[in-house]
Specification:
This protein is of the alpha+beta class. 27% of the residues lie in helices and 34% in strands.
Length: 163
């Protein structure tokens, strides 16, 4: 069976430990509007952007410097018919060595092209992984959505007319 889940891969010159610790810090690369721990096994956290996207995730698997898996427990989009499309999907971060670099492969398992949100989510994850997370790992500073401001989500909302 073919896996059509969304996947993005980045290569960095930092160690696997640096990448692993950066990924766990969702506030530093996804959004400062997160409540709860993003780095503790079997704990959940809540992400939201205005009333456009609300999401509760739980860290369900953690292998130091190798893998992180988050399960989407609850989700609501205000711009599609099935507002819960992400529920039961998983955010998987695989960390490995490739040549002399660290490779991070992000897979949103279950986020497939037939989902109504796929085009918007494709744009969003591509930006967060290849820009914000990449910068956090390589420079120490990501570009998350700032607390109480618009940030990257505002660009997406405008592009996709989600306001």
């Amino acid at each position: 069976m073919e896996n059509n889940s969304f996947t993005k891969t980045i290569l960095v010159n930092q160690s696997k430990a640096v990448a692993f610790n950066a990924i766990k810090n969702f506030r530093a690369w996804w959004s400062e509007e997160i409540e709860g721990p993003t780095d503790q096994l079997n704990e959940s956290f809540f992400y939201h952007y205005k009333d456009i996207h609300l999401c509760k995730l739980k860290l369900i698997d953690m292998i130091p410097d190798k893998k992180l898996v988050y399960e989407v427990l609850e989700n609501e989009f205000n711009f599609i018919d099935d507002k819960t499309e992400w529920v039961g999907t998983k955010l998987i971060f695989d960390i490995s060595e490739k040549d002399t670099k660290t490779q991070i492969t992000f897979t949103h398992e279950g986020l497939v092209p037939t989902y109504e949100c796929f085009a918007v989510c494709n744009d969003a994850w591509t930006g967060y992984i290849t820009n914000s997370l990449y910068k956090l790992i390589t420079t120490g500073k990501g570009e998350p959505n700032p607390k109480d401001k618009d940030g990257f989500n505002a660009e997406l909302a405008e592009k996709w007319q989600l306001n």
